[in-house]
């Protein structure tokens, strides 16, 4: 397959996308770009042969030369080939190719060929250096809006303050105080503070190490008032400005002042902020700052993705097999279609059927009898007897009534005998108490117990829990 694609691309006019004006985004040998797309559609051999013959007989217009200034505009203006495009020899060429013994008709877009740039290498190199210098100076101008402000970053124990065009300090901040703003963080006066680097021409070289011991420093000339030196660096498709700051607090491990490299990256989606800071080597640091200010210059913006020209290849099928191929394709599409899952039935309810709650999330209507169910205690008297003075008549629920209450007549008879024994000549009754969320209770109550003091013997009650 690689040989087929190589031969196919070899048939396409290859041109160098040289440009009269240098752009930091251009890869001069990467254009024009092509991609080979194998379409799911097919074409009959008679139709394919006819297209190739007509394309050969037609005299296509020679690609017009254009002295374009951007690769992006050249790519966007070129029509992209498609499997469903009509025959158009002015913008496409056609080739019959073979892949694994199967014939394909490939449609190749005609790309406009720019005029060859005759600029010498020396002039091109000079233009490149000029563009990089312009981008560097412009980037520095855009960053001047940060002058006079500070950015802060917290990483564990340490906090960092980057005051633009001044210095970067490392310190431990005090805990947030109630009623006081979180920014700027306040340094802890009991903890040592370090200067990681100073901007060129700002401040004086430290004459003390981090233990506040005096050290000897060589005399230097007066610092220049020129703007700090920055340079544009490129890493892959990323372009950013770099500022190197030195002259920080002397490191006790290396005996040299601390230093830091600050990278300014374009990020249009955030405000000015410190992305991260890390110690790359002993007392040497790297700080990355994300800012939308650099995005005003195209040199720092991420490059746009250029769409490749599509070379579309369709399978060539004999005319007599076209109908069979269509039926086969239809069967394949049906097999590849997601199968409808069988609904799940739980207790006669179809899950996901939307019978009770529809897909729009509307609530079920409240039943008419909602809230009318008894919520308090329900008491049923299943047996009672009057006192001996009142005749001692005993009333008892029938076995049928007890069965409705799910009570065992023998158990009720046992409770009755115990209550009679406890009541003696007094009246009594047996109650069944149902309370929501509780076990059903059976109470034997003797008349007069509620009016007597609790410490007297007459205040007695037989209590049962019906766990049946």
Automatic annotation (TrEMBL):
Q: Region (Disordered): which ranges?
A: 54-86, 184-230, 446-468
Highest taxon of source: Eukaryota
Where do the MRH domain residues begin and end? 148-297
Query: Which stretches does UniProt call biased (Acidic residues)?
Result: 447-459
Q: One GO MF term, please? A: carbohydrate binding
The regions listed as transmembrane in this protein's record are none
Main location group: endoplasmic reticulum
Q: Which GO terms describe its biological process?
A: endoplasmic reticulum unfolded protein response; retrograde protein transport, ER to cytosol
Q: Which GO terms describe its cellular component?
A: endoplasmic reticulum lumen; endoplasmic reticulum membrane
- Compositional bias (Basic and acidic residues) spans? 64-77, 205-230
One Pfam entry for this protein is PRKCSH
Q: Does the keyword Signal apply?
A: yes
Swiss-Prot/TrEMBL keywords: Disulfide bond, Endoplasmic reticulum, Lectin, Membrane, Signal
For membrane topology, the record states: Peripheral membrane protein
Q: Where does the UniProt annotation locate this protein?
A: Endoplasmic reticulum membrane
Q: Identify the stretch annotated as signal peptide in this record.
A: 1-17
As for what it does, the entry says: Lectin involved in the quality control of the secretory pathway. As a member of the endoplasmic reticulum-associated degradation lumenal (ERAD-L) surveillance system, targets misfolded endoplasmic reticulum lumenal glycoproteins for degradation.
Homology family: Belongs to the OS-9 family.
Q: What is this protein called?
A: Endoplasmic reticulum lectin
